[in-house]
């Protein structure tokens, strides 16, 4: 002990402090008594006020850090303090409330205790000395809390570099925020002091009526609960005012020091990082409470031998009793609640997702599994791309994903500087020989530098000067290396000399070479790219999308009045962007749907046939009755109309109609298809059926798409029928008919697309989710829309050709379908959820609109009654490409109508586009247009949006 | 009869109906000479008082990454299922605050979830218009996802609410945006009965909530966007037993009173109300006056085991604890420490009544329980 005292004397702080605390308190370690702390505070105010500034400056100095081979840097950030206080969890917040409260009284003392220790530690050079001083600290009464933190660091950072503790100690000391340590420990003390009386008083508990029946569960669960209320009690009793005004409490919180933690093998790099790229610096969290060596950070009990769980971020250790309270529900794995949202300490990456015994004992298997899953796959725990420098350039997020998800990824990727030879796939740490051969041709990082592996052999492989070991390997492998050649080596090991086009051989061709490489610990290409990579890549492949999707997925909401073609666009999108647009199951289901549709179409036709037959019979009779007044009814039966069928078919048709009427068509038909195919075939070829088919336009209930299917009815009804994509596109009701369907896709690499900025690399990474909603059955008030507040754009679909169609609205009135669309549009646009949402109007069925507008005037719809096409005079030369067709004029007119409506409702601009949903290119263009709109939206903050859209400028310039 | 004439008669009839409704309302108001609170006050009842630690947040269930929309407790054990905008159902162990299952849903837009009485399975429904059942004991597939064990499809609109029939793992009642409620047989996956819809006495707008009578599981209540609540008998699907008027906005939530003779409702008009199912009368309105006339909507309610307390979550993040007898707010969980940052979307009391769980748009669930100490006076 005397030795330690001596040590302490060496460092000036002990002198300053030596008075009361050391002499009296030496044997007493933690916990500090409430009574004792004031002593320290007394000492504080005078002597250290000026020395405080010193420690703040010193630890930052690069020389110091480098000299000690330490990788810590820190900065003082008040924002980090805010982050700290954000934690919503009960336990900590209660405590921090306490902290705040006590701050007022103890802040001065904290400062004072801080500075001497910093001076001391700054002068510490060797690890042993450091240890000693730590010991002293533990023993020295008042100071203990401060030094415990250094002790703890020492212990915990065993994994890390040595000497870490001393520096981090410096940092602590330098930072104002170290006050937290003292405060919290003292608050703990307080609560403990109170605990006795409170426990007793709990005997008087009166249960609330709502938990009369049993409250055991909540109390039985550890002392934690009681700690909670204790601390809350303390604060509420003493500092009721602060409690009332919690906002004020927050403000009073002192800034806390946070540390940028960049770990790597190379300290120079760290310098670079922290200076040149400050934006990528990570906050390193330090535990709020500082405790005695080996004790639990929460209850302050236990020794280093009690089993504990460690926070992946701040290294805090908790005993089994406290783990659950301190770490809460572990949404990101083993982290203190205050550390949630912070990246894990890189030294713990190895244990990421590996469960400890403590946890296994505390939780059941399912829970452990969930925690580990969360820990492993949550986004914030992933390797940060900025920390990985490839060929001198830090990676982007996408590049890291690419690197990790390639078939043969680098093993155990750690932060650091790497070189990567894209041609051969060689991968290594900067300045070192190759480590591994990974998948080649990944577009990550910058171009490889000649001195990437710091070779001095003057032999180059793919532009990199190789190391001596490699050269030796090459020589032994029989490669001619005389004359400092420059080689091109491909991923398969074939090599050629620069400037020559003949492969000279395969480096790894001989079996001996591989053995040689093993001896020289040089990498060889893995046989198939899978054996080692498969497990990793498959787990990554699964996990990646989980957090990746949430990040970059853009949701597009496709909505429109029923019949507006949203489902066709949706199907078209699936066919366009999915490799397998429809799974086997879906196709099977779709087959059944199409088949039963065909039966129902046939049924409708047969119904029509009966009607036509009757009509023509009546006509015949009338003729007969006119002609031969007394011609008997007997003849009537024998009459042949074009719509008559033979008895067998008649029986079939009667039966079919009966089934249709009973509504069990779908239950019976697809199953019984086989036996009826011949009958149907016969029926379809019968003259009567053909005659009816010719008059199909008179049958209102027959949808227009039916002709597409009826033409190939016989084919479709065969049992081995498999619908083509086109069939599916045409078919009705094949997407989930009720409610919502969604498809995720990304736009394929632009091939035919000439857009200037679509070559942007991030584009292909962006994923989109097209959500199609059927407005029908979703009520008038659209309450559910608030669930979709995370969509980026609403694509509102209107069928252009609806302007002469009518449908029944909710009140049973016959309303123009265009007006119904308009009403839905108004509802959507004014919905609070879509307050600031971009809208894209798709005017669908432009093809049939063009046809229709020639026959039916657009003014048929009351909304469009002022449509007076200017073109009418030039009708004769409408072939002229310069003159828009009537259809185009109509489209522009309708678009303008909607735009005006939109801007009158929102004051913003509506994007509009014409679409032919049955044409893939048209849908593709429309969805790309939506993407463009999103891009403009992102760029908007940079400047007022100019008129990008050809559609919108065209349309808005058209006015009258 | 011409169309014009028909229309005229329809108009007249509609007017008559409206005037009759108005008269009914007047009459009701006339008969409603007192409410529970006035009576209780006259009887000298004093309000429940809460100490500072009587109700504290003792667990925070973190793990969702989106707004929490719905939660439900198991009847036994202390497990909770919650549904969130992130497209996941999470089953929590409320005691350890750990997840036991995280179920990725095929359709991310989930609005409701429920625990089966046995605790073996969970149900959820949403914008996909289907109710999906997951058996918690089934094996996960290769991606670690729990497969859907049964899909109840048949609704023509979104599924807004679902609840298992007490003590029966095989029956479930759903409420839907297609204006109907449906009683399902889970084993067959078919509809046993459909309540409302084309029938006259059904709801005339989206049904948002159902609550089954705990003491008589044949009766259930539904709350709807037509600002009414209706009482149904599962044996009589054709018509509602009774319709409860009073709310002036969408009825977002209904919940049976523990004794099964009353039920509470919460609405967009910012009030909670207590109705008696035997008389059909409104017993009490729970309305906190707000300075600005924009009253926050009630999103979810729950009664304490005794019925003395009514917990109500509001869109502004408040969560009032009402004294049901005196109609006074005795506590606002939204103003306590560690309260939610955002709208409280759902809440529920554990089966034993010892803990309250609230789910919020801030993506957390919190468990509130008795603080463990009460000051002695």
TrEMBL record, chain A:
GO terms for biological process: signal transduction. Keywords: GTP-binding, Magnesium, Metal-binding, Nucleotide-binding, Transducer. SMART domains: G_alpha. It comes from the Eukaryota. The keyword Acetylation does not apply. Residues 112-123 have a biased composition (Low complexity). GTP binds at residues 844-847. GO terms for molecular function: GTP binding. Coiled coil: none annotated. Mg(2+) binds at residues 567, 737. It comes from Salvia divinorum (Maria pastora). Residues 98-134 are annotated as: Disordered. SUPFAM superfamilies: P-loop containing nucleoside triphosphate hydrolases, Transducin (alpha subunit), insertion domain. It holds the Pfam family G-alpha. This is Extra-large guanine nucleotide-binding protein 1-like. The keyword Metal-binding applies. Transmembrane segments: none annotated.
From TrEMBL, chain B:
WD repeats lie at residues 61-102, 152-194, 200-242, 244-285, 337-377. GO terms for biological process: signal transduction. It holds the Pfam family WD40_Gbeta. GO terms for cellular component: plasma membrane. Signal peptide: none annotated. It comes from the Eukaryota. Keywords: Repeat, Transducer, WD repeat. Guanine nucleotide-binding proteins (G proteins) are involved as a modulator or transducer in various transmembrane signaling systems. The beta and gamma chains are required for the GTPase activity, for replacement of GDP by GTP, and for G protein-effector interaction. Belongs to the WD repeat G protein beta family. G proteins are composed of 3 units, alpha, beta and gamma. This is Guanine nucleotide-binding protein subunit beta. The lineage of its organism: Eukaryota, Viridiplantae, Streptophyta, Embryophyta, Tracheophyta.
